[in-house]
Write a structure and sequence with these properties.
228 residues; 7% strand; alpha+beta
């Protein structure tokens, strides 16, 4: 009983992240938590088995999406909202710069990923394309949407001339939190030729050398298949 009470006390104040190992949205949240140095409890939600439709999870996120972050009485069910919540609660190290132009650029890049690339990769969208258009067409669709978004971001970063070690300077910021999972999926899942995007390819190398990004990789998560 004493051991159980000690364990309960140890986990009482921890944040809980409901995540799926292969979800790029969950991947973003894991990176943000790691960068902020926040200890959290990982709660796996198997999207393939439909666990996102479990009534208990729907109470947390009625949209039936991952990730969902629980912090006491607060429940945040969107990766963008989670990143901003963590930024407000744990301001150091900052993910959003004070400079207005760089702040806007970070939000713009994050927005392109969150609204212009990733939603077109959702399982429900790809399943519908396969049913309505034909098997194999979903792969071409995914590649087209990724390449469109990557072209925009590559050009945007080059146009602004702000890239340093990372996307918008020499410090990791919000744009990197969103870019890293999308680039990772493009390479490992969608076979995108990154030679067309030299800036993004270089950023990928930087992310793969950063401990917070490496710890958040899909294959490093407790619910990842052992062969992943």
């Amino acid at each position: 009983m004493a051991e159980a009470e000690t364990e309960a006390e140890a986990t009482a104040g921890r944040l809980r992240l409901y995540s799926y190992w292969r979800s790029s949205c969950s991947h973003r949240a894991r990176i943000a938590l790691n960068l902020k140095g926040v200890d959290y409890e990982y709660k796996a939600v198997n999207l393939v088995k439909g666990e996102q439709s479990d009534p208990e999870f729907v109470k947390l996120n009625p949209m039936k999406f991952v990730p969902a972050l629980v912090d006491g009485d607060s429940v945040i069910g969107d990766s963008y909202a989670i990143a901003l919540y963590l930024e407000d609660k744990y301001p150091e190290p900052p993910l959003i710069p004070h400079d207005l132009q760089k702040k806007a650029l970070n939000h713009q890049i994050a927005g392109i990923v969150a609204s212009g690339i990733q939603p077109f990769h959702n399982r429900s969208v790809l399943r519908l394309i396969g049913q309505k258009v034909g098997a194999g067409e979903s792969v071409l669709w995914t590649q087209q949407q990724t390449e469109r978004g990557f072209t925009a971001i590559e050009n945007l970063i080059q146009l602004k001339g702000c890239a340093g070690k990372y996307a918008t300077g020499d410090e990791v910021q919000l744009a990197d939190v969103f870019l890293a999972p999308q680039i990772c999926g493009a390479i490992e899942v969608n076979q995108i030729d990154m030679s067309n995007y030299p800036t993004l390819a270089r950023l990928h190398s930087e992310y793969m050398a950063h401990p917070a990004f490496v710890a958040a990789l899909p294959g490093r998560q407790p619910d990842a298949p052992s062969s992943s």
